[in-house]
Amino acid sequence: MQLTVWTYEGPPHVGAMRVATGMERLHYVLHAPQGDTYADLLFTMIERRNQRPPVTYTTFQARDLGQDTAELFRHTAIEAYERFKPQALLVGSSCTAELIQDDPGGLSQTLGLPVPAIPLELPSYSRKENWGASETFYQLVRSLAGNAEARPADEAGSRRPRCNLLGPTALGFRHRDDIQEITQLLGSLGIDVHVTAPMGSTPADIARLGEADFNVVLYPEIAQTAAKWLERTFKQPYTRVIPIGVGATREFIQEVAGIAQVDPGPALENAQSRLPWYSRSVDSNYLTGKRVFIFGDATHAVAAARVATEEFGFKVVGLGTYSREFAREVREAAKLYDVTPLITDDYLEVEAQVAELQPELVLGTQMERHISKRLGVGCAVISAPVHVQDFPARYAPQMGFGGANVLFDTWVHPLMMGLEEHLLGMFREDFEFHAEAAPSHLGGTGTTERRVAAAPAEVQPEAVTTDAVPEPAQDGEPVWSADAEKELRKIPFFVRGKARRNTERFAKEKGLHEISIDTLYDAKAHFGR
Amino acid sequence: MTVPVQPSSSAGPEKTVDFNIIRERGPHAVFCGLTSIIWLHRKIQDAFFLVVGSRTCAHLMQSAAGVMIFAEPRFGTALIEERDLAGLADANEELDRVVARLLERRPDIRMLFLVGSCPSEVIKLDLERAASRLSQQHMPQVRVLNYTGSGIETTFTQGEDTCLAALVPELPRETDADPASLLVVGSLADIVEDQFTRLFAEMGIHDVRYLPARRSDQLPAVGPNTRYILAQPFLNEAARALEGLGATRLSAPFPLGVEGTTGWLRAAADAFGVDPALFDKVTAPGIERARRGLSHIAEELKGKRIFLFPDSQLEIPLARFLHREAGMELVEVGTPYLHRQHLAEELAMLPKDTCLSEGQHLDKQLDRCREAHPDVVVCGLGLANPLEAEGMTTKWSIELVFTPIQGYDQAADLAELFARPLMRRAKLRV
Q1: Burial classification of residue B72, based on how many CB atoms lie within 10 Å of its CB (0-12 exposed, 13-18 middle, 19 or more buried)
Q2: How far apart are CA A205 and CA A114, in angstroms?
Q3: Which residue in A162, A465, B90, B296 has the most C-beta neighbors within 10 A?
Q4: What whole-number distance in Å separates Cα of residue A294 and Cα of residue A292?
Q5: Chain A CB contacts of B107 below 8 Å
Q6: How far apart are CA B393 and CA A384, in angstroms?
Q7: Mean per-residue pLDDT for B135-158?
């Protein structure tokens, strides 16, 4: 068993639901106990969809377990087909149904339906949401996209090049606007989008995927498996660059232009991102070297690390992902920034690492917001899992040049603004603007939650008091003298945790038992900022 | 409309014979009992709820509560993994390890609930024994209890029922020698609890206790002289457990609206021999205020047709209130489960031609709803936006569990919850 406070991904059948709900004319019959319909709310509330997801649940109860739950499934599936008349049916189990082993896949072959029934084998106790979405999309493509012989005679040359956009689903982080941004970008290169899938497509559209010249993979976590199959089957190359950030978007344009054999020049010249100028303007000077911790799905985490380093001038001090399937990509990226990659789906491990590294900004998921609140660090969201506020009404892509503008505003917002940061470094005893106060542009007048500059295991929060007492020595741990502790409090909170750690490390290396004011400044000189 | 409510002792199924009750089986859109953790973790402030289940359970919890940012989460999941299913890991040892890690991280926890889920029940994990074993390990620091919140056993608010039933054996005991006390059962908003305490005190009933209590070290004592009154309609198991300890139930309607609140208070007052004149004097200001508050809103609701999908078992008391005090017409009143004895007083107040439904076949019920095209539909959040998009006005039902709605001074707030979507629809011009 694993103690889970927050989970980064849902179970794999939620991934299957994301594919089904993103599509049209497709229905999903899910063998699941009463209560698993909570997943409808992800789509109707968090994503604010105006239709019920195309999912029919068997919703068995305890009293059904003594009877024929397999018959219940058959009956539900037939009823769902009769009512909704989809072009294709997905059938599968949730985690509880997996335990009672009714084999929906086998049963669906005996229903005698006039449309394809695609069985999904999604192991709930070893796999998770993105894998479930990826597997579902792959099975759909395999079952419906036919084979190379079915491809119409190539009329390339007589028309504009065209590609499929693969990967966007329902409940995807900013998928709605990323599609729009990338479709426009491709259009400016003279490339048409043939089918966007799963989002917005029907089973009939999936059958036409092979007619495109190549594939654009926007979200490898969901579309890479299907793209590889399409490459083998239809010889369609697929893109590897994820266009998040100005630099990556430029590379993406080069890559796509190379595949489609078009001129990238005009699209590159018309790059309409404000990020480069905003980042170069003197107001952004104070962003240099800000220590940032990054966590999310592999695609967004790797992209964010590059943007943070090359386009914001931040220093990446931690990089990790919960996408085990893409651990290699994150390990490669971590080498670039000389940090130890964190590959885990354990929220408590991530929390411990953030506490250890003491960053000034966390770029993560909804779950890192909890961690940041506890530790009193600014936080911006770069990746799913997200909640309702990250499905905004306004146009808010992450990808392309428009996405870069959004990134700039979003990531800088939680940081203390430059002037305020300077004045805090100068004057610390103001009744309104003091070291423990939240950044004033965030609207808080009081103090933030207690700022724990300690590991979660440590019970004693830092007392916000001026007459600090030295903490008792734990075996071999250096003790802070009262003066040094007081001096430490004069350092603004966003770098105080780091200063505390560095000083303790320095004292230990020097074999000191007590930390004095001099030790604090010696350590500062030793480590630099 | 001041019909004095006579508590009837012979309440039984025969009282509901004349109702047309639709009983359907099929797909249903309801929450499982795990969802009750969303409000119980706030009610009992030093408790932690550890679900023993799958990633689906963990995902449900955070999808519901994760929009709030928790510096200190008060619930979590012990995720069952493949190793546990294959018998490679001893489930009990695993659970002990997880609990030890949790308590080490959160030394402030005083009560730990191991909450059973569908997966833990299908594989027959004995959480009851695990709870008593862990209790022995962690007492006196932490008490470990167990209840089920699984979807196969419980629907939404029934999770509170099973939780309270698990608390009952932990309650301090009283004997015949102890004076009579009043126990109010069911989670109420703090402000409502305080209002009731004041009203009872004015009637001379000073020893009023509440289950659940706000902290785990303040559990109410129970004995043969305990008179308990249900503040919520979904407390079947908890009631049975209390009767097992000798407590007696006071039959009453539920304290929603003027009539419900008066009937509910009267049941307690009668049991404690409060003089009727004093009762009237104490309740008069509340009744007058509630009527005044309702008069503003009733206009908005009068004659409007309402359809309630099953969700929390609050539907029948709500329908009674909306019909009798706000003048609404009842198209269909759905409930996940109908406890005839606990609801006898409520059913007696409903019009005899009310269409009740117990259980659900979602698609057929939606067909009926579309056909009737009611003015207001009370339903869960999985249906609300899709029905709004079809042009219906909805009131999402979960809010009724998360809002102070009981008592005189909340009667207008309760009506306003139903009027608000109608007023909003009338306001919006885009």
Answers
A1: middle
A2: 18
A3: A162
A4: 7
A5: 459
A6: 32
A7: 95
Q: From the centroid of its chain, how far is CA A423?
A: 35
Q: Has residue A449 got a pLDDT over 80?
A: no
Which residues make beta-bridge pairs with B305? B329
Decide: A60 and A207 in contact? Cβ < 8 Å.
no
Question: Model confidence over A59-102: pLDDT tens digits?
Answer: 999 988 877 899 999 999 999 999 999 999 999 999 999 999 89
Average pLDDT, chain B: 92
- Segment A395-424 shows an average pLDDT of 88
- Overall size of chain B counted in residues: 430
The Cα B200–Cα B208 span in angstroms is 8
Q: Spell out which residues of chain B touch residue A39, defining contact as CB-CB under 8 Å.
A: 59, 63
Q: Do B105 and A456 touch (CB under 8 A)?
A: yes
Q: Which of B30, B50, B59, B361 to mutate to test the interface with A (most CBs of A within 10 A)?
A: B59
Which residues touch A298 (CB under 8 Å, ≥6 apart)?
A220, A221, A321, A323, A325, A326, A327, A329, A330
* Test mutation, A30, A31, A41, A370, chain B, max B CBs within 10 A: A41
Would the CB atoms of B383 and A385 count as touching at under 8 Å? no
- Between CA A283 and CA A280 the distance in angstroms is 8
A99–B119: do the CB atoms touch at under 8 Å? Answer: yes
Residue whose tokens read 């009610």: B43
Residue of B nearest to A66 (CA): B122
Average pLDDT over residues B377-382: 95
Residue B258 has a CB neighbour count (10 Å cut-off) of 23
Across chain A, mean pLDDT equals 89
- Paired with A390 in beta bridges are none
From the list A501, A457, A442, the residue with the least C-alpha distance to A317 is A501
CA-to-CA distance for A418 and A73, rounded, in angstroms? 61
Residues of chain B found within 8 Å of residue A83, distances taken between Cβ atoms: 363
Determine the straight-line distance between the first and last CA of chain A, rounded to whole angstroms: 42
